[in-house]
């Protein structure tokens, strides 16, 4: 726009300067009419006069215009430069600015990036925690490796025979003592009715009495909550130094007590938590076959300061207490085999195996209570889980510390213990 207006103004100036020169050069020349001025114009000379009269004014105006145009041109040039610059800038900006869909996409991408960043921070945290777990596991593995190396070293050392079994054998421990055995320890015995020998712990004293140990409680290390088969076959561990707990097994006890016509004595030895020791002896002790559910029978109570708990006990709850807590003639019951005289299962309630009646006044396979005393609460909701009980010595809320059940022929029981006849009898063998 600006350049074309400039051109028009320039053209007008040229026209005016041409005509004024013509007028100036021919001021006195006769005025000739000119058709181009129309009929309303008086004369062309009049027009010339008119124009001449206003010429200085018009010149001034033109000069002003020229000046303004010059200024304007200058300004326009500056503006043009600015516009060009702005256009260039716009173009380059346009070149740099991505189209709208890209912008949207990039915005979406940015949001995604922010979200991914958050996720990655959370994952980094998780990774950090996992790394902690890994390093702790690695430490454990290293400890285990160390332990395994130690064990390997120990295992490469030659294994020492830790269980010493005596070479003497016999039908029972008294037989072994009679054959010259003088040391307590592990021996193989084979009662007459047995088809094969089995290992027992023999307690051979200074009078060469050979006790065959059938039960041992010492420290509660062995769980006596076992089933019929386990009580039948025996459980726990025999040790040459008599330090471990066990039940020899009903079948072996049956064989040991029924293979001979000679009366067998069951000696029960008890130790309480004060360290006091007491005992009870039952003679003609027999345990029947499995067909008779390993029934317990004995002839009579031979004696002992622990009292005759096998005969039942009057707890004061009911007149029939004593009758229903006696043990002579009772079959063996376990948690999975109820042979008792009670509508429920005594063995199941106590979690053990024993010659249960309804239920007991003596129970040496009961639960082991450290310290001895236990309450009805300890014994469970219904007052069961009874301890190691011998009620003619300690009441039913007292569990004994140690028990031993062992067998010896009646003929040998009185030997020793200061009884000279026994010693003489022994000496005669
Ligand atoms: Ca029952």
Automatic annotation (TrEMBL):
Record has Transport as a keyword: no
Single Gene Ontology MF annotation: metal ion binding
Keywords for this protein: Blood coagulation, Calcium, Coiled coil, Disulfide bond, Glycoprotein, Hemostasis, Metal-binding, Secreted, Signal
Listed PANTHER family: FIBRINOGEN ALPHA CHAIN (PTHR47221), FIBRINOGEN GAMMA CHAIN (PTHR47221:SF9)
One GO term describing the cellular component: fibrinogen complex
Classification via PROSITE patterns: FIBRINOGEN_C_1, FIBRINOGEN_C_2
InterPro entries reported for this sequence: FIB_ANG-like (IPR037579), Fibrinogen-like_C (IPR036056), Fibrinogen_a/b/g_C_1 (IPR014716), Fibrinogen_a/b/g_C_dom (IPR002181), Fibrinogen_a/b/g_coil_dom (IPR012290), Fibrinogen_CS (IPR020837)
Protein name in the entry: Fibrinogen gamma chain
Assembly and interaction partners: Heterohexamer; disulfide linked. Contains 2 sets of 3 non-identical chains (alpha, beta and gamma). The 2 heterotrimers are in head to head conformation with the N-termini in a small central domain.
Upper classification of the organism: Eukaryota, Metazoa, Chordata, Craniata, Vertebrata
Subcellular location as annotated: Secreted
GO biological process annotation, one example: fibrinolysis
Chief localisation class: secreted
Gene: fgg
Signal peptide feature range: 1-21
Fibrinogen C-terminal domain: residues covered: 164-411
């Amino acid at each position: 726009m600006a350049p074309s207006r400039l051109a028009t103004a320039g053209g007008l100036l040229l026209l005016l300067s041409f005509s004024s020169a013509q007028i100036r050069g021919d001021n006195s020349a006769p005025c000739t009419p000119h058709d181009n001025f129309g009929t309303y114009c008086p004369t062309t000379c009049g027009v010339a006069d008119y124009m001449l009269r206003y010429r200085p004014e018009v010149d001034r105006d033109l000069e002003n215009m020229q000046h303004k145009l010059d200024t304007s041109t200058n300004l326009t040039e500056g503006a043009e430069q600015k516009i060009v610059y702005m256009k260039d800038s716009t173009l380059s900006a346009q070149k740099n600015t991505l189209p709208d869909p890209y912008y949207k996409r990039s915005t979406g991408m940015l949001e995604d990036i922010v979200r991914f960043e958050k996720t990655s921070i959370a994952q980094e945290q998780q990774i950090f925690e996992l790394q902690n777990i890994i390093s702790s596991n690695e430490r454990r593995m290293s400890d285990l490796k160390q332990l395994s190396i130690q064990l390997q070293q120990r295992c490469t050392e030659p294994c020492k025979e830790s269980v010493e079994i005596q070479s003497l054998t016999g039908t029972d421990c008294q037989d072994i003592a009679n054959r010259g055995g003088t040391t307590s320890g592990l021996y193989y015995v084979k009662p007459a009715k047995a088809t094969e020998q089995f290992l027992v712990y023999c307690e051979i004293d200074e009078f060469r009495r050979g006790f065959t140990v059938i039960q041992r409680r010492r420290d509660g290390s062995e769980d006596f909550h076992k089933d019929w088969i386990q009580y039948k076959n025996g459980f726990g561990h025999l040790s040459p130094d008599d330090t471990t707990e066990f039940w020899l097994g009903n079948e072996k006890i049956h064989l040991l007590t029924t293979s001979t016509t000679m009366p067998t004595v069951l000696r029960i030895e008890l130790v309480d938590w004060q360290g006091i020791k007491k005992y009870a002896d039952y003679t003609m002790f027999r345990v029947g076959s499995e067909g008779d559910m390993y029934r317990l029978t004995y002839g009579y109570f031979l004696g002992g300061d622990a009292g005759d708990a096998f005969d039942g006990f009057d707890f004061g709850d009911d007149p029939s207490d004593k009758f229903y807590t006696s043990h002579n003639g009772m079959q063996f019951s376990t948690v999975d085999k109820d042979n008792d005289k009670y509508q429920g299962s005594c063995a199941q309630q106590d979690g053990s195996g024993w010659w249960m009646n309804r239920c007991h006044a003596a129970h040496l396979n009961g639960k082991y209570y450290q310290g001895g005393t236990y309450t009805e609460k300890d014994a469970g909701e219904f007052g069961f889980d009874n301890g190691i009980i011998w009620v003619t010595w300690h009441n039913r809320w007292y569990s004994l510390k140690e028990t031993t059940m062992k067998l010896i022929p009646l003929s040998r029981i009185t030997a020793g213990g200061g009884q000279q006849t026994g010693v003489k009898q022994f000496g005669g063998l």
